[in-house]
Amino acid sequence: YLLGHQGSSTGDADAAAELRPQIREVRNYLSGEGRDAEKLNTACAELAETRRRIARSSSVPEYLIDRALMWEATARFLRGGDGDLERALELLNQLRESKGKTSMKHYTYNSAVVCRLLGRLESASARLVELGEVTDTWGMLAVFEKAHLLTEPEFCNVWDKFEKEVLAWKTELVQFASVQTPSDESSYELRRIRPHNTLVGKAILAAELDYPRSSRPADRRGVEDNAETLRAAKLFFESALAAGSESSPDTYLQLARVHLYLGEFAKARDLARRYRKESKVPPTAVAAYVEAEATGDRKRECSAHHSSLRHRTVRGSSSAEEHPLPVVEMPNSV
Which of 5, 235, 252, 329 sits CB 3.0–4.6 Å from 275 for a disulfide? Predict the structure, then answer.
């Protein structure tokens, strides 16, 4: 086929012939048919050599150069050895900088994923912003990546540079959480790699409660938009538990956070204790905080009945001023 193109050489045709079985080996690894680490190592080395041969040619068609770059990046991403992700990102950047690309969004999305895995969260965010609004399969993959990014502990360090984007991503994730993934055959791969429900819920809570800085329950009461998002998150976590979530202990904790910020202290306290009972890891600071906040509010409401200020009617608090933080009245509550 290449020999039929004006200017193509026999060497170009040989390189293309060598590329095909190398790509087939990576495809087999991707499909799960040939998860042989040694074969993947061989494919990585051979793809790198073939790409260098193709790059040295002045007559090879540009699409073949792009094909070599894409599959070597794929192989290195799958292998994930020392320096592989760095090299994969370099190859993806070369693809993104190539002229005349009609599918630039593919390479932009892939670059965002690799940047996140390398810990370059600001670059990952910039790539997702660059991707913009995408409505096809790549758009759904971008939503998945936004969920992963929002749950990265270090991402809060660059939130101030992506204020509008974080709020927009929160809206996207709330919409995503309320829509079932289609069950047709074309959506099978999306369902297979879809982030766990608990991770999506944690991403929504991160954008709602921790942006632009972590807030306490009393700081958020009375904010209607906040309550609407929290109610959506509550339904989401409850459905995850009903479906037999694999991350049930963590789901209990996240649902406890939701109840706490909604002012439902008894439920928050019970869920936090259930998390502590079922979790296989040592108690976390978040779990201790949720349980202490919920318990502190319960003690404060009870103590109001026994205070010397009995002339005031005891009622539920309606604002942060009437409902002071527990650490103020109860220094040992946390």
Answer: 252
